[in-house]
């Protein structure tokens, strides 16, 4: 029996999460430059195994894309769901649900089209002025990600992406501009979205092209440059607005040992350590010993200056945010028939868990486990900034969408989040991923729907783009209105 009477904090930040490259569209509007995500093309599921986003793009492939008319082909992240023109309509719907916070990202190439521009693009800055003004009208706090899976394409083709140390300066200039511009309207910031993707997909995470991505030295040097850039952003943010809070963002994966064999337990420990290495550097301010051993054993050698170490140590994040979708098993031996894909990870299937339509293992209790682990490790406030169910939704003839499965998924995860609060974990808020249907990050599909709001568009961009409220819309509104008491 649960004897915990503790509720969610009075100032708990309920809301939803999005990303510019998945909702905005308008890739060629308002002076915006091309981004890395504008090069990611959709292919039907039968022609791909893990989704085009998980492939690495070469310079030749990008150049071939650029030779064609930019309106040729199916590049879903160029169109998003047209938030660029419909932001007022969408924010009004978020307000109707009662959102206290909206997680969104600023598109770096909308502010600096080429990344190395001398002056920022005023049209891009004005667009976010308008978005933040609309949020303020409904008393919705923006939680802004500075770099969410996209960067100016020019920085990739001209400089080699984050493998080039010069990108620290370009990024610093960009963040200083947006920190100063929005210092009176944005209180909560995140640096890099799921920064651990850099070592899994160097193109999406760090703008590293296919040939260079084979070299671990280049990949981990790029990651280090991102760590330094993140610490620099923390420093600049606090100098411009001492009241602002800035966090890191990790794709969290709990790994359970497949058996009680100590070797499986050790593999699970190492998997866990590696997943947390990224937040260790940003939250503790130094490279942990286990990753130094990993570098040595894998012949990885990167340049880290004394100034870098000092910057990392003195500019740790204020809070830790992360995405949580699933858990996997770890084993000393992974047979192909045991493998299962999910989010950006590949692991072993857990026979005790059910899967989503896309094969992601559903584990609400794992959320409570992750919250306790991270709070024990860091003793800093935590923020669940992504959690949600990607599923096939059907728009009925009466324009209703019955998604009881999404309600059930979210309810179970919120219950475990409440249990973690009862455990003593400090949680700032919860932003459900894809609070409105958007272009999938991992597959570039539209048919993989996460939202409480249905968007009438298919995988090929066809549809009215009309917005319709799902059953989960009304359920989540009730949850927020009651501060989590009525689920």
UniProtKB/TrEMBL annotation:
The active site is at residue 386. Transmembrane segments: none annotated. GO terms for molecular function: 6-phospho-beta-glucosidase activity. The keyword Kinase does not apply. Keywords: Glycosidase, Hydrolase. InterPro entries: GH, GH_1_N_CS, Glyco_hydro_1, Glyco_hydro_1_AS. Its EC number is 3.2.1.86. Belongs to the glycosyl hydrolase 1 family. This is 6-phospho-beta-glucosidase. It comes from Candidatus Enterococcus murrayae. The lineage of its organism: Bacteria, Bacillati, Bacillota, Bacilli, Lactobacillales.
């Amino acid at each position: 029996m649960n004897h915990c009477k503790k509720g969610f904090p009075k100032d708990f930040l309920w809301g939803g999460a999005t990303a510019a490259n998945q909702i905005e569209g308008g890739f060629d509007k308002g002076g915006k430059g091309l981004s890395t995500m504008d090069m990611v093309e959709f292919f039907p599921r039968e022609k791909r195994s893990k989704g085009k986003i998980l492939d690495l793009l070469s310079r030749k492939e990008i150049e071939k894309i650029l030779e064609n008319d930019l309106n040729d082909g199916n590049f879903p992240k160029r169109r998003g769901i047209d938030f660029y023109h419909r932001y007022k309509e969408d924010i009004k719907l978020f307000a109707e649900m009662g959102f206290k916070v909206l997680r969104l990202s600023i598109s770096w190439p909308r502010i600096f089209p080429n990344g190395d521009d001398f002056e920022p693009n005023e049209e891009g800055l004005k667009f976010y002025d308008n978005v933040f003004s609309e949020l303020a009208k409904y008393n919705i706090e923006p939680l802004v990600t500075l770099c969410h899976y996209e960067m100016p394409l020019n920085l990739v083709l001209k400089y080699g992406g984050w493998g080039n140390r010069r990108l620290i300066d370009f990024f610093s200039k960009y963040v200083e501009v947006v920190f100063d511009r929005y210092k009176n309207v944005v209180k909560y910031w995140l640096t890099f979205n799921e920064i651990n993707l850099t070592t899994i997909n160097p193109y999406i995470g760090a703008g590293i092209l296919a040939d260079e991505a084979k070299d671990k030295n280049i990949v981990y040097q790029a990651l280090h440059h991102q760590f330094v850039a993140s610490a620099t952003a923390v420093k600049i943010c606090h100098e411009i607005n001492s009241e602002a809070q800035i966090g890191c963002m990790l794709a969290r994966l709990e790994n359970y040992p497949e058996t009680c064999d100590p070797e499986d337990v050790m593999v699970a420990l190492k998997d866990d350590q590696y997943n947390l290495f990224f937040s260790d550097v940003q939250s503790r301010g130094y490279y942990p010993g286990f990753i130094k051993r990993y570098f040595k054993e894998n012949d990885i050698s990167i340049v880290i200056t004394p100034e870098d170490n000092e910057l990392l140590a003195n500019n740790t994040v204020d809070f830790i945010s992360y995405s949580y979708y699933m858990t996997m098993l770890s084993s000393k031996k992974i047979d192909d028939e045991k493998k299962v894909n999910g989010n950006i990870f590949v692991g072993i299937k857990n026979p005790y868990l059910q899967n989503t339509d896309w094969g992601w293992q559903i584990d609400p209790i794992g959320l409570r486990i992750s919250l306790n682990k991270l709070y024990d490790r860091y003793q800093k406030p935590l923020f669940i900034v992504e959690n949600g169910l990607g599923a096939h939704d059907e728009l009925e003839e009466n324009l209703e969408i019955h998604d009881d499965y999404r309600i059930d998924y979210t309810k179970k995860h919120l219950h475990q989040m409440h249990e973690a609060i009862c455990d003593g974990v400090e949680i700032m808020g919860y932003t459900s991923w894809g609070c409105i249907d958007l272009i999938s990050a991992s597959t570039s599909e539209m048919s993989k729907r996460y939202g409480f709001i249905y968007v009438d568009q298919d995988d090929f961009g066809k549809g009215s783009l009309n917005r319709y409220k799902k059953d989960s819309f009304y359920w989540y509104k009730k949850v927020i209105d009651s501060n989590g008491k009525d689920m």
